[in-house]
Please model this.
Amino acid sequence: MVYLYIGDSGPELRDAWHLAGKDTWDLEDAIKAELGYKEHMMSVFGIGPAGENLVRFAGFIGDRGHAASHNGTGAVLGVKRLKAIAVGRGKKRVRVHDTKALTQIANESFENMRKDPAWNNTYLWGMMGGPAGDGGRASNTALVNNYTSNILAIPEEKAEKFHGPYIREHFQPKAHPCWACQMHHCNLITITEGPYTGFVGEEPEAEGISAFGSLIGNDDGASMVLLCNEVDRLGFCINEAGWVTAFAMEMYEKGLFNLEDTDGLELNWGNVEAVRSLLRNIANRKGLGELLADGVKRASERLGGPAPEMAVYTMKGASPRSHDHRVRWLELFDTCVSDTSTIEGDASDRGDMFGIENIKDGFSGEQVTAFIAGSRGGFQVTDSLGICKFPNRTQPVMLTRMLNAATGWDFTWDEAMEVGLRAVNIMRMYNLRCKLVGPQIEQPGPRYSSTPTDGAAKGKSIRPMWPEMLRNYYTLMGWNPATGAPKPETLRRLGLEDLIPALG
Model:
């Protein structure tokens, strides 16, 4: 086992067997101490026990809780026996064409977000607004007991403890932002109430708030913070970790798992210590953890019987983000047809950002697919630049102004969108080779697309519309409406002629 160290003298592979078994926080501390770096002078991303044991939803975690974890990135590093990548803060400066202009445009972008009513909360509180508190109560996007309801029933005084203002006011926040970022986002916090008083971790985000709050029947905000950090330390994708935990808890509730199956853990809703132990067992593939380490879809299929009907997943194998997408068809459809297992477009219905119509009816299959196709490529531009989406949510077109200030180019937004569409189609061709494209697999699992029995989407089912939505989306994207594969003329138009032979 090795880790990659990148310093001023270049890259170097170093032995990491003495780091085996360490969680991602202890790993970061150990590498910084070994190499003589102080806090904030080095960035360390690595894998915890979950990645070492090839858990399918292991993530790549660093800097105290930042994560690149969809699709089992940590398992990929585990296979390669690469424990971490550590990058020291360099002494050389990056050449910028027009520093003054770049700074001015960046400040303008943050100011736009601060003033935009749709994104001001994100600017102030990061992703702690979330569907586990009042936001989820109003929109019915909260997850309750493994997707069996979307009505958040916990009392107001408990719900507020899942929100940014309460956490920031009560849990002694210490700013821990990404380098030079003006967002009031990442903080290290200390739990100051309940049995976990004194625990230090990173403040949670919306998906973790849901996953280890209402999804598992937990109504205690402090213990939710603890579990979110446990997930990061062990090295999981927090979404899949939440879904697989909730699945096991429902199986236990319905008598399909007994104490012998769960290694003696009483997986009752809200049993925080049982969940904590279960997560550790999954990370180490111990007992029931061996089954659950393959993710909720594969675990439920191995169990058979009613299990697959109780698990939440897409037919491609991954679980969705931790919101109730039955109320958000835009996200449900995007998640299933994306080539990255999560949303690849904007979920805000803000068509004005891309020069297309806003969605007027969120339960219209035609409007949903037109919006997703019309906005495709926009956020792939952000990803291709390797920067955060949040500061540019209000006006993505500003990205080209920043790019031109940094490089001296004269890039237009239309050219940038073409770059984004190339990325979309290249990913599509890769997934076509992996047999992850087409109507049979670009589907939600049974419970993921079930018809809500309460809330704003009560009685509304996306299932009958799905075949026509797929055909419409494929057609708008320039793909074969029967197979979902890019058409030769689409690849040719985007300058991807070399990929046409792979269509077969």
In short: The first strand starts at residue 2 and ends at 7. The chain has three domains: 2-88, 128-310, 329-503.
